[in-house]
Amino acid sequence: NKNYEREIEALKKELELNQTLTSWHDILIVDKGSKDGIEANMAVMSQKGLIGRVIEVNTASSKIELLSSSNESSNHFPVRVSSANGEAFGLLKNYDEKLHALVVTQLTGDTDIKEGDVVQTSGLGGNSPANLPIGTVI
């Protein structure tokens, strides 16, 4: 299937698809932009919860850095972990590829965190609203 390989290579060049494989887990581009009310630093949701933050906005498109991004110096969200005993606050810091899970660090609070506890944005810091669902503790 040399023809298919040549065709794919031509399309890649035409579309300038020169990202590395790992970068596909970092950035998402959507066809909504400033004309649709999108602004930089907005939290981005899917049907299941928070997936990232808008990092660049154009008129008709936006670039989103996903929570699964390998960029450890950005895309941090202050979070609240709600358990039966109370709440803890921390920072959603990165994505663990081996566990396929988001990692929360710098936890504060006097509560025992258990599997199944709910993780949401806390709203602290002012960059994202409170109570956006992120997931549960595993």
Automatic annotation (TrEMBL):
Residues 19-137 form the Rod shape-determining protein MreC beta-barrel core domain. GO terms for cellular component: plasma membrane. Keywords: Cell shape. It comes from the Bacteria. The keyword Nucleotide-binding does not apply. GO terms for biological process: regulation of cell shape. The keyword Magnesium does not apply. InterPro entries: Cell/Rod_1, Cell/Rod_MreC_2, MreC, MreC_beta-barrel_core. Belongs to the MreC family. This is Cell shape-determining protein MreC.
